[in-house]
Amino acid sequence: MDRRHALYNWFRRNPFKVDFAAAALLVLMFGPVYLYAGRPLLALVSCALLAPLAWRRTRPVAAAAVVVLVCLVQWALVVQPVAGQIAVPLVIYAVAAYGPAWASRSVLVLGLVGAVMLTTRYYSSSAESGIQDLTVGATYTVLVWMLVLVSWTLGDLTRVRRLQLQALEDRNRRLEIEQQQERQLAAADERSHIAREMHDIVAHSLAVIITQADGARYAAAARPELATEALATIAGTGRNSLAEMRRLLGVLRSDEQSGTRPQPGLAELDELFLGFRAAGLTLSFEQGGAPSAQAGSSRRRLPPGAELTAYRVIQEALTNVIKHAGPRARAAVTLHWRGRALHIEVRDDGRGAAADPSQGGGNGLRGMAERIALYDGSLDAGPASGGGFRVSAFIPYSES
Asked: What pLDDT shows up at residue 61?
């Protein structure tokens, strides 16, 4: 089966070589016969009709033009039909299958007209007039017409099948390109998602650990009990971060049991705030309105992904406060459930250095914007009037 497919593919890739070999074989079969019979003119006409078959697929219009020209010369010189006349239906088939549409229609008309010209010239020059002769001539004409029509019909069907196969091949190529592009987009989106998760987990944890480590270093000599508390906070933060990293890496390994732990949401904000307060951040929290389920509204609840986005925005904003706002900075977190969106605002009264792109490269703010954009939300971050820094986010939810 593999050899047959290989042979078939070779025939498809080398049409001229195949047609040249076939034309040469026909010339060798039908040309020398007339030379042996002492009819060199018939041998020349036969070879002239068969030779263009070598280009019947690569240049079908040119091959058909040569065959038509030879047939006209043959008709004008009243040369009797020869064995090479088999080239006529073959050329009609080739032009209908591989030539342009106008050439296909032209060879059909020329073939029908040529049949009439052939029979009328033969009978007008070699037969006596009579009803019987006319009947035989008409019969020959109809038979030649049938041969022309069958050749053209088979060629046209071949053209339709060839175009269908070409369309399928083009479609398959487009599908392969689209699938490759979709895989690349999916991989890029997954890389962005992983980068955001890694940044949120690592940046938050390291900020808390660095702050606590600095505090423990200064308090170790004067107040050892504070250093002990700071080390405990460092250990707890490290354990939580390690657990999050293991969960994230488990998802990357497609571990079925790695994703069983639920993602953090707004219900875990109290635990998040405890960690920041333990790190020495003075933090206040205020919530206005209520989620839909508590308020009895017809609104849908925020999906888990949107709640995770809100959680990460608050986490990243507070992490920036610890990293950039300076010592003794205070932060305020406000959640307001509005009619069309959840409004999140995190404000601090520190230096506002988080607006400086040189501090950490701005990956946190970019990650927040990418997360919120997935839910058609908006993010506004920048220095606040009167000092400090302000992060404001809107995450819409659909009306039912």
From this structure: 92
User: Residue 334 region, left (φ>0) first, then alpha (ψ -120 to 50), else beta?
Assistant: beta
Residue 98 lies in a domain: yes
Task: Specify whether the CB–CB gap between 92 and 151 falls below 8 A.
Answer: yes
pTM value?
0.49
Last residue of a domain, one of 108, 126, 144: 126
In a domain, 241, yes or no: no
Range of the domain at 24: 2-126
Q: Indicate the residue among 111, 126, 141 that finishes a domain.
A: 126
Say if CB 328 and CB 211 are below 8 A apart: no
Q: Taking the chain, what is the end-to-end CA distance rounded to the nearest angstrom?
A: 60
Rg of the chain's alpha carbons, rounded to an integer?
43
- The one-letter code for the residue type at 199 is H
Which CATH number do you get for residue 327?
A: 3.30.565.10
Q: Return the amino acid letter for 9.
A: N
d(CA 258, CA 254): 8
Mean pLDDT by runs of 10 across the 400 residues of the chain is 76 84 88 84 88 90 92 86 88 91 90 86 55 72 90 91 88 86 78 69 69 68 69 72 67 52 76 81 84 49 79 86 81 87 89 50 72 85 84 76
Domain assignment present for 294 = yes
Q: CB-hemisphere CA count at 13 Å for 115?
A: 20
Contact in structure between 79 and 43 (CB atoms under 8 Å): no
Q: Provide the β-strand partners of residue 330.
A: 282
- Nearest-5° angle of CA 35, CA 38, CA 40? 55
